[in-house]
Amino acid sequence: MVPPVAVSPVIKTARWSFLLIGMFYGKQRYDYLKPRAEKERLVEEAEKKIREEQEKIAKALAEGNIFFNSSEC
Amino acid sequence: MAQAVQKLVAKVPTLIGAAATYSKPRLATFWHYAKVELVPPSPAEIPQAIIGIKNIVTGVNSGRLGQTTVKDAFRNGLVCTEVMMWFYIGECIGKGGIVGYAV
Lengths: 73, 103
Hints:
The complex is a heterodimer of chains A (73) and B (103). Chain A is mainly alpha-helical and 73 residues long.
């Protein structure tokens, strides 16, 4: 087996400091994104409700129109 | 259907045993190399690392780094890419997921 190579200290510190910085960055970004995602979800739900109401009204109108058409003849 | 499931369930211990026997020597070689190459820097090595970074900066300023061969530059580029990947692994650990943020 090839003997393990002695890694230079620069590379070792760079690797492990990047790992730690990455962990901090991931945690911070997650904490930044979480409340925004919650707000967006609430807005999306409200808009979806309004959209569904409008679709129901449009559908009822369409069916009502068909009903009116058939009653005319 | 039930018989096929039973046969599969009976095979699982043998599969796990086969996986263990396959992976043990490979894990041993991985540990053999990782113990030396992947360990974090000891407190004595951090000043050496700072000196090394200063050497690199002086190398850039003096133009010595412009003299690196393409082979060396390629090798250094691969090493830098590997170091950058550790940042993204850290980010995955920090955000608690592999793909995307689970918000």
